[in-house]
Amino acid sequence: MTESRQRHEVRIRITGTHDGEQDLEDLQRWLQRESWLTPGNHDWRRAPGAETAPRTGAADQGPEMAVGIDDLVLVLIGAVAAPMTEQLLIALREWLAHRRETAAKGEAPGLDITDASGHRRLDDPDPRTERDDQGGRVGTE
Questions:
Q1: Which pTM was predicted?
Q2: Coil, helix or strand at residue 136
Q3: What is the DSSP string of 13-54?
């Protein structure tokens, strides 16, 4: 690998589940099925979870369940990192929808994403980024 190859890190934290470590393993397996993730264009690592972001919900929701769980870091390598990031967000939304369907009582799965553009909570899909069957954008920005 040459020094000129771009590296784009995406830090992923799973919140609101009872078994965060298992969820991280499941998420990594889910993402590895993506055809755009090929050997040589990415790397995985675990990083200690940073301080949990403040909750925005009701005060009686209890403590955040992700405390003490590592974050999954996907390192995208090469000039294709920007288009891959968009594909990653689509795959993460799909995983989150699936995980919410299988959530146990008391779980409220969520994903926090941190990358070069900052921190964001990945909740229900933003209609501006949903795609129609032909791959075009639905809605307007």
A1: 0.71
A2: coil
A3: EEES-S-HHHHHHHHHHHHHT-TT--TTSEEEEEE---PPPP
